[in-house]
């Protein structure tokens, strides 16, 4: 699908606490034309969440039928509580209009998207956001204060696995200074989409 007139799907990955969302948010403040892929989920909407904006909310049978029909780039069953997935159709529609599409996802999801995209004839550019050091990642994760010490320990163990996978990615950005990392990410996107 991607040719000289279409950029590739940008898959953004990195360990929890590295600042993926912050970096991407900074880029989108300056470049709102970037479309952030919206996931589908079977969980209930939280207060203030809007269908089609935050998530595509659906019932479990509806989700499973779409999954069986191959309508997702990737899916995940989170702790048996809810299903999440990335719908293929809106991603393709935006790419065909040469609108930059970014999918912020975990390592397992990034690997699945690469595999599935190949089956669909989509091209993918993978970008890994990494911390300046593991100690800095640990400091940031603990500093967020959003998880219990047990959850932090689990996330740090997962982060070690994710950091070891960084060489699998097409591009790597060290998030030492948010504005610099955001500039680097924007340059990758702009080059990919001829902006």
TrEMBL record:
Domain of life: Bacteria
Pfam families reported for this sequence: Guanylate_kin (PF00625)
One GO cellular component, as annotated: cytosol
Main location: cytoplasm
Compartments, as annotated in UniProt: Cytoplasm
GO function terms (MF aspect): ATP binding; GMP kinase activity
UniProt-recorded name of the protein: Guanylate kinase
Natural source organism: Bifidobacterium adolescentis (strain ATCC 15703 / DSM 20083 / NCTC 11814 / E194a)
Gene assigned in the entry: gmk
